[in-house]
Amino acid sequence: MKKAILILILFFSISSFAQVKGTVTDSKGKPIAFANIYVKDTYISTTSNEQGKYELNIKIPGTYVILYKYLGYKTEKKVVEFDKVAVSLDATLQEEEIQLQDVAISNKVNPAIEIIKNAIASKKVNTKKTDKYNADFYSRGIFRVKNLPKTILGQKLDFFDEMIDSTRSGILYLSETVSKITFQKPDKMKETIIASKVSGRDNGFSFNNAADVNYDFYENYLDFNTKVVSPIADNAFNYYKYKFDGSFVDENNKIIDKIKVIAKRDSEPVMEGYIYIVDDSWAIYAVDLTIKGSQMGNPAINKLVIQQSFSYNNTNKIWAKNTQTFDFEAGIFGINISGRFTYVYSNFDFPEKLEKKTFTNEVLKFEANANKKEDTFWNTIRPVPLTIEESTDYLKKDVLQTKKKSKTYLDSIDTKRNKFRVFDVISGYNYSNSYKKWNINYDGLLSNTSFNTVQGWKFHSGISYTKREEEKRTFTRISSNIEFGLAEKKLRATGSYVHKFNSVNNATLSINAGSSVAQFNSNNPISNTINTFSSLLFKNNFMKLYEKNFVSANFGRELVNGLNMNFNLDYSERKPLWNTTDQSITKTDDVYSSNNPILPDDFSTPAFEKHNLMKANVVAVIKFGQHYWTRPDGKFNIGNDSYPTVSLGYEKTFSATDKKYEYSLLKFRIQQLAALGNKGNTKINISGGQFINGENIAFVDYKHFNGNQTHIGSADSYTNQFNNLPYYSASTNTKYFETHIEHNDQGFIMNKIPLLNKLQSQLVLGFHNLAIPDRKPYQEYTIGLDNLGFGKAKLFRLDYVRSYQNGYQGDAIIFGLKFLNVLE
After folding, report:
1. Has residue 570 got a pLDDT over 80?
2. pLDDT (tens digit, 9 = 90+) per residue, 344-382?
3. So what's the pLDDT on residue 767?
4. DSSP alpha helix (H) spans, 629-678
5. Alpha-carbon distance 712 to 816, whole Å?
6. Angle at 608 between CA 603 and CA 612, to 5 degrees
7. Beta strands in 676-792 (DSSP E)
């Protein structure tokens, strides 16, 4: 009985409120998924679902000609009288008869070449017709998993257990959005989300949006993480070969040419498949193209298939994209995921011009209660009917969500997860109260264990309490940490309080106090993990440390869009520290350098005298042209690579033990990521500063530069460090100017070199310059390969560095470990 009721619910949920509905099949009665259905000479359109079912929402009574189109099949035409009563209208599509023109028989002439040349030459004319428009937009995304493993690298994978079936297969993610969009070439988009729905989540905020999937094949490149070359790009013949597969006549008596797109080099960011071109106008009729994950710099994806279909309006003579689908297959570590995103564009309006204030930095917003729409609303507005599988998933996860939000369920989960085990004393432990949204986390005695010459083996532990407001995306955290140096025989402790007030301007306050061991360079250029191995294996003592007993307060927030301010006030006592151990694994006879970064061979002179002072810091970060999304739960800032990010800072010390420690520092930083089409990306990081009254300040307060004598790199360090500069050799208390420039070709060069293209790597060229008074400029030139690894695990990078200062100074090899930040 329950099963029968469920079937009835599903039937009415996918059948009610339809205006014109039906099924699209082929001549054998097999459903045709994602056929294009639209009203002739209008932009009222939809697409069929995976079962061939469709719904077409017509609001005004009248007589309409409905067209059914799918690549490889003849367009079917149906006439319907509509008077606001639901109409059932099925369509059967016959296979298209592709005709080869006589010219295609010649061995000397390839008609595809001429067709593609005409399409390229006509891009400006064709794209101008749709360079600005208003439209309705619908998006649906679904992720499926098949044979999900129970464990990965020894860790249980039970998060999705209640979503999948006994074969560990099922839907992991299902979401929909309905929105209104306004677009103007090349990339201006304004989107208002009318309705948003995510299966199993009552906040319903889907990140599906029109701007992220606005793939225009009239443009030279399509942004799929890397710049993929369009089959009708200006330089397309450098990347593709073409084959004429014939032509057919569409419902408007227009000849459609079917062109097979073939990659010249499989290793490059290119596609393969078919592009359909309208003869005479040379507009795009449809695309059906495939790209591999390795070709777009994402090896976790096996392949992605993009299909687009355009419809013609005899009234305004415009071909407009009305449907787009992405099918993908991905897999890594035994997890195999497939999915599809379906996009429907309808009700186009092509104005002569748009109002000047149409586009602002707010590129997307949600209408009030967009995530709270009832099923009755969705059934009237959804252009693509749900499949039985999708409807079942919504019902199943709605029930599951209600269950998961109940106190009984959450308490039972917590009881299981909060179970304490003896090993947790050293590995760590987390206690949660999921219903009240708080948790206590304990860092085990062995967490972050490391070695340095001042403390010897350092053991760290900590405990924190966190209370979250998930709807507002805010939190409060109170924490305390202790560390003990085994050789130093000293215990230190710190405590902190952090509160995030809101997610609109991200106002956050933190208060910290305690005693700690800190690096002279506050950027911490040497990680604990790398220093441990460097010291114990090679007897290097690069990490220079001092003791800081302090109390500090920090407040940051966004003042206006794109302008963030951060205020920090710190009172501290600084003490010099000394080496307490000579322990190592291999070089037992060698001696570590001293803990004095100025005099590494002097074991009796401290780097500075003990003193106290107050330090204030004010930093303004300006992100020009910053775009953002507005949701009921906050503001989401979106970067704008067209403009640089500028940081301006002022640092002032006062109330010092001795006036000589008091100084001012003015500083700036400019960062820019410049995209050069399919030729790669260039990162630029320029900074400088000027000390005032800094002649006698403590070495702690000097400007220190990020060197890298360990010759190990991490993912985010390359444009913020010098790869062959001793850590404290250039520290200054006067003025400085440093430049870091790095270009990653994203495979543009490497993909063209035989044999090396098998690596699917990226060529990286770098330049680094440091200028300070009374010293010749220090320069580094680097060349390297990024995206190295095994199979889909591209976790490594390798660079050769050559440094100059008044002539050649030295060279080095840098081994990059992209996972290094995760270990810290």
Report:
1. yes
2. 999 999 999 999 889 999 999 999 888 888 888 898 888
3. 97
4. none
5. 6
6. 140
7. 681-692, 712-713, 735-744, 762-771, 778-790
**Would you tell me how many other CB atoms lie within 10 Å of the CB of residue 357?**
6
DSSP letters for 765-785: EEEEEEE-TTSPPEEEEEEEE
- Per the document, the length of the chain is 824
Helix, strand, coil % over all residues of the chain, rounded to 5 = 15, 45, 40
- Assign 211 to helix, strand or coil: helix
DSSP per-residue codes, 382-436: -SSPPPHHHHHHHHHHHHHHHHHHSHHHHHHHHHHHT---TTHHHHEEEEEETTT
SS3 assignment, position 237: helix
Asked if 703 contacts 686 with a C-beta cutoff of 8 angstroms, the reply is no
Half-sphere exposure of 389 (CA within 13 A, CB side): 15
Structure tokens at 715: 């993912």
Coil, strand or helix at 704: coil
Delimit the domains of the chain by residue range.
19-93, 110-402, 524-546+556-566+592-823
Considering the entire predicted model, what is its pTM? Answer: 0.88
What does R_g of the chain's alpha carbons equal in angstroms? 31
Give yes or no for a contact between 711 and 725, defined as CB atoms under 8 angstroms apart: no
**Domain spanning 19-93: CATH superfamily:** Carboxypeptidase-like, regulatory domain (2.60.40.1120)
Most confident of 27-36, 88-97, 291-300, 683-692: 683-692
Q: Other CB atoms closer than 10 Å to residue 471's CB: what's the count? A: 13
- Cα torsion 580, 583, 587, 589: sign: positive
Strand bridging mode 151-152 / 87-88: unpaired
d(CA 780, CA 725): 9
Whole-angstrom distance, CA of residue 359 vs CA of residue 527: 44
- Which amino acid, one-letter code, is at 460? H
Average pLDDT, the chain: 90
> How far is Cα 230 from Cα 351, in angstroms, rounded to an integer?
27
pLDDT tens by residue, 391-419: 999 999 888 888 888 899 889 988 988 99
Residue 163: which of 199, 189, 196 has the closest Cα? 199
Helix/strand/coil for 213: helix
Centre a 10 Å sphere on the Cβ of residue 99 and count the other Cβ atoms it contains: 12
